[in-house]
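Sequence in, structure out.
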Amino acid sequence: GGSGPSGAMAAAEVDPAQVLELPQGWEARESESHPGNIYFFNVYSRVGRWQKPDRATAIPQKVRASHILVKHAGCRNPKSHRTGEAVTRSADEAVEFLTALQT
């Protein structure tokens, strides 16, 4: 199958100027199964939809997490479970990333 959200298509064309107004985390992509039609993809939730997201559907500014794992090159298994690629970030870079998340 092609890419794009499942279900009936509701929107066929999107004004290119509107694409620039997408909330953070959203991308406009051309559907492989419906060439010439644009769908919207959330890079965080990995969900696609035909309707253009607005501020109400944007990524929340704060979330709760009880555990966050950031792999680094020195960990026991320095390989991404998601992509299978080797992790190259240093332990210090992992700590900096986590520290930035707290703010």
